[in-house]
Design a protein that fits this description.
single chain; mainly alpha; 2 domains; two-stranded antiparallel sheet; 6 helices; 32% helix; rod-shaped
């Protein structure tokens, strides 16, 4: 039923507009004699028959009128039965009506937490059972531990002069210069390459490319 005052839609059995409280001018028809009666009539004005009251809405997501007990929609400002002003539902009331988590959901969450704890405990026990030797990485073979024939070092060094530039280019074979790019550095480079498996001829080429100062002839 549409209110002529504000245009709001109301239930068919409403006597007053739920938005503005204006009387909707409802006429109640007597089931005995068929006479029309004012909307607030309890007995028929023609035959005295008790008039049926407007059916009350079921309680659910609605508010009860303090004046007549009629249930109204949550957004109703006035009772549709008696026109009493309604107190608008607060957000707290709406939250109270929202359903909480079900028992099945709670049980599922508890089960997942228990399973996670069990997996963590099992993983910790497994790590403790591993021997330290199994957890430590294998020792890498260092080239410095491989013995190099010093005769091969001399065989390479005699083809070069010291590349430091500060000792007068002494023969690398006998020079003991420890300056940058000096004899000590070059001989260590020679030992390293020999330890890696390069031949004397290959190491000579490598030293020549890196340090130069190869003896001609």
């Amino acid at each position: 039923m549409k209110c002529n005052e504000c245009g709001s839609e109301n239930p068919n059995q409403a006597k007053f507009c739920r938005k503005c409280g204006t009387s909707l001018g409802v006429r109640l028809r007597c089931v005995r004699c068929g006479a029309e009666n004012p909307g607030d009539s309890i007995f028929c004005v023609e035959c005295g028959e008790r008039l049926s009251e407007a059916p009350k809405l079921t309680k659910g997501t609605q508010r009860k009128c303090k004046g007549c007990g009629q249930f109204n929609e949550l957004d109703a400002l006035f009772c549709v039965a008696c026109g009493e002003e309604m107190i608008k539902a607060t957000e707290e009331d709406l939250k109270k009506r929202s359903p909480g988590p079900s028992y099945g959901t709670i049980a599922l969450v508890i089960g997942m937490i228990f399973l996670f704890g069990l997996l963590v405990k099992t993983g910790v026990s497994f790590l403790k059972s591993i021997r330290p030797s199994q957890m430590s990485p294998p020792a890498s073979t260092s080239t410095s531990s491989i013995k190099v024939d010093e005769a091969q070092v001399i065989a390479v060094a005699k083809n070069f002069k010291c590349a430091c530039g500060g000792c007068g280019e002494l023969p690398l074979e006998t020079c003991t210069c420890d300056m940058p790019r000096g004899a000590v550095e070059e001989k260590n480079f020679i030992r390293e390459k020999l330890a890696e498996g390069f031949t004397v001829e290959q190491v000579i080429d490598l030293v020549d490319k890196k340090y130069g100062h190869r003896v001609k002839g």
